[in-house]
Amino acid sequence: MSSSEHSGDPPSENQPSSVPAAAPAPTTAVVSAPAPTTAAAQVPVSAPEPASAPSASAEPAPAPAADPAPAPAQEPEPVVCYVPNEVDVSLRVLLALFVIGFGVWLVLSWLKYDKSAAQTEEGWHKGSRQLIEVTLVREDINKLACASNFSVEGLDCGYLANSQPRVPVPDDAHMLRPYCNVKNDVLLAAGLWNSPGLRGALPTERFTVMCNYDIVGVLKTVSLRWSPNDKFDPAKQGLPVGVLTDCVIPQ
Q1: How far apart are CA 144 and CA 149, in angstroms?
Q2: Strands across the sheet with 223-225, in order?
Q3: Is the distance from CB of 222 to CB of 151 less than 8 angstroms?
Q4: What is the pLDDT of residues 190-230, one digit of tens each?
């Protein structure tokens, strides 16, 4: 033991004591629960009752209405560009040519019909008399002929339908021949060369003759020949039949 322990002087404040200090006693904090300040705090809270199982007789609760499903968005249709091929182009060209040809045919047919109908509109019907101008050459008396098995009011073609001469041969007053007027209308007539105005010398060039044309009927089943070396060709339409009288060569 050191001398400081035996002396009665207290240890200085700067000098540490060699005696260990006693550990402080642990303090126990007692926290008292606060007193309830309201009356509701004093009411005991009862435990929640367990949920009773639904009875079998109970109707199920209706399910909530489901929201309508949104309509699916429609995708835009793709634009398809048609590119014609060579076959389509050829068909279109052929169709266009057909339409053009058909239109031309209609126009020509109408013109032909209008020309043939002009005679009827001007009074070319059975029993009528027309003043016409016929174009001729003097050789036509032996060149022009028609062929048919039919007779109209005693007037006959010089040939039968088989191109054989009719027997007996009709005289000029009853023999039909095809003629063309200055409008290029075809007609069948007899009596031209028997007219007093044509019994003399005839012009050597083509000339015209003015005649009264008395129409006695129409002949459709007939063939025409414009030269002895030609064959008979069927007429494409009915032709008026008549007698030429009072023929004169205009001066």
Answers
A1: 17
A2: 145-147, 223-225, 233-234
A3: no
A4: 999 988 888 888 899 999 999 999 999 999 899 999 999 89
Structure-token pair, residue 102: 């058909």
Residues 6+ apart with CB under 8 A from 171: 194
Specify whether the CB–CB gap between 145 and 175 falls below 8 A. Answer: no
Backbone angles phi, psi at 207, to 5 degrees: -140, 175
Residue-level length of the chain: 251
Place of tokens 């073609």: 157
Quickly list DSSP for 94-142: HHHHHHHHHHHHHHHHHHHHHHHHHHHHTT-STT-EEEEEEEE-TTHHH
| DSSP bridge partners of 188 | 178, 241
- Amino acid letter, residue 144: L
> Terminal CA-to-CA distance of the chain, rounded, Å?
194
Domain ranges of the chain: 84-121, 129-248
Helix, strand, or coil (residue 201): coil
User: What are the two backbone dihedrals, phi and then psi, of residue 64, each rounded to the nearest 5 degrees?
Assistant: -60, 140
Q: Which residues contact 210 (CB under 8 A, 6 or more apart)?
A: 131, 132, 133, 247, 248, 249, 250
Instruction: Please state whether the predicted TM-score (pTM) of the whole model is above 0.85.
Output: no
Evaluate whether 244 touches 156 at the Cβ level (below 8 Å): no
